[in-house]
Amino acid sequence: MKSISYDTAPGRETHMSIQIRNLTKSFGKLTAVDRLSLDIEKGEIFGLLGPNGAGKTTLLSMLAVLMTPTSGTATVDGNDIVKAPLAVRKCIGMVFQGGSLDNLLTARENLQLHAKLYGVPMEVREQRIAEALELVELTSRANDRAGNFSGGMKRRLEIARALLHRPAVLFLDEPTVGLDPQTREHIWSYIKKLARAEEMTIILTTHYMEEADLLCDRIALIDRGKIVALDTPDGLKRRMGGDRVKLGCAKACSAAMLARIKKFPFVKSVSQEDGQLVLVVNNAPKHLQKLLKIVGDVEEVHVLPASLNEVFLQYTGREIRDESAEADMQAMVSGPGRHR
Ligand SMILES: Nc1ncnc2c1ncn2[C@@H]1O[C@H](COP(=O)(O)OP(=O)(O)O)[C@@H](O)[C@H]1O
Ligand SMILES: [Mg+2]
Questions:
Q1: Is the pTM of this model over 0.85?
Q2: Is residue 223 pLDDT above 50, yes or no?
Q3: CA–CA distance from 328 to each of 164, 187, 197, 221, 277 (Å)?
Q4: What is the pLDDT of residue 50?
């Protein structure tokens, strides 16, 4: 794994939006975030990608001063999360799970309430609300009650609300979980717009590989409270140094056959996914023939570049995907307008 250097030379600090040092959160015996260190630059869209239970929400909660760390330090836009929680509050926006919209209020009233709570000056309030509604394309629904909105519209309204006080840093905890593919793509495009237009630092957690891959400038793969790899999406995939080969087999492979395949020096990993054998292979075109001979009844062959799931598998021996993610991914892959 690439070592992470912490350059503390003067001047560099000013480009840093977030600095995390040995941040730890324990719940009794469980260490949810484990001596984690990380620097995030201004204007980055930074992804925390890992399976459920990896510690993503706990990390975000500490940075958003919703939870106090057990040990370690972090600054957000120069403000210490333990020593200056109020200053942190003022410079962040957040969209967490289990939204907190008032369903009885209209979209506009929800925004007005938040703007007042955050002390957005009266003379710019209405202007900011109009801009935020525009960004998430809810202008025409501004006077409808939030309680009548779909899940996707609610999420969009929550994003709009988080922007009203012009935060330097925006935290998004699983921003598209449970949303349909089209809504998900919409939200991605708002997030990209924001990072470009406002130079806002955006930190999002996700267990969707595609989301991290398409959206983020850099990704930290998180497992059991630790960063196991950190790079750009392409950088992470290049580390696999291999192709992904999917073999559609007539019947499931035996354990003995898998063991034989694993012995090949050009095979980096093997797994089975819904009747398909998925391998990461060095120079697939050269070695494919040997694999086909062993596997036998192969009905389909696909050779693809490695995905973040394989990278995660290589670093942790486990996969990011779980059952719920699997079902969601299926919907994404078969959704309209998705060509990968
Ligand atoms: N308030 C809490 N009390 C006890 N355990 C918790 C609490 N919050 C999270 N955990 C545990 O910490 C681990 C990390 O959880 P979480 O940060 O929610 O993971 P993720 O967001 O990556 O799914 C999990 O094992 C979870 O059960
Ligand atoms: Mg979470």
A1: no
A2: yes
A3: 31, 16, 30, 20, 21
A4: 92
Max avg pLDDT among 56-65, 186-195, 288-297: 56-65
**Any alpha helices (H) in the chain, and if so which ranges?**
56-63, 85-91, 107-117, 122-135, 151-163, 181-198, 209-215, 233-240, 255-263, 284-295, 308-316, 323-334
Phi, psi at 207, each rounded to 5°: -110, 10
Provide the residues around ligand 2 (an ion) whose CB is within 5 A: 56-57
Atom of ligand 1 nearest to the CA of 67: 1
In the chain the domains, ranked by start, together with CATH numbers, are 12-236 (3.40.50.300), 240-334 (3.30.70.100)
Cα–Cα distance, 40 to 33 (Å, whole number) = 17
Residue with tokens 């078969």: 334
User: Residues 20-34: what's their mean pLDDT?
Assistant: 98
Give yes or no for residue 237 CB within 6 A of ligand 1: no
> Which of 105, 183, 99 is closest to 144 using CA atoms?
105
Looking at the CA of residue 48, tell me the nearest atom of ligand 1.
Answer: 22
Rounded CA separation 333/153 (Å): 22
Q: Judge contact between 40 and 227, C-beta under 8 A.
A: no
Strand duo 201-206 + 169-173: pairing = parallel
How confident is the prediction for the chain on average, in pLDDT? 87
Q: Residue 142 in contact with residue 150, Cβ under 8 Å? A: no
Show Cβ contacts of residue 28 under 8 Å, excluding neighbours closer than 6 positions. none
Model confidence band, residue 119 (pLDDT cutoffs 50, 70, 90): very high
Phi, psi of 21 (to 5 degrees): -130, 115
- Choose one of 29, 48, 58 to mutate for the ligand 1 pocket test, by most ligand atoms within 8 angstroms of C-beta: 58
- Judge if the beta carbon of residue 52 lies within 6 A of ligand 1: yes
Q: Which of 18-22, 85-89, 102-106, 253-257 has the lowest mean pLDDT?
A: 253-257
Which residues, listed in sequence order, are joined to residue 75 by a DSSP beta bridge? 19, 80
| Across 185-193, average pLDDT | 88
Residue 88 — pLDDT band, cuts 50, 70, 90? very high
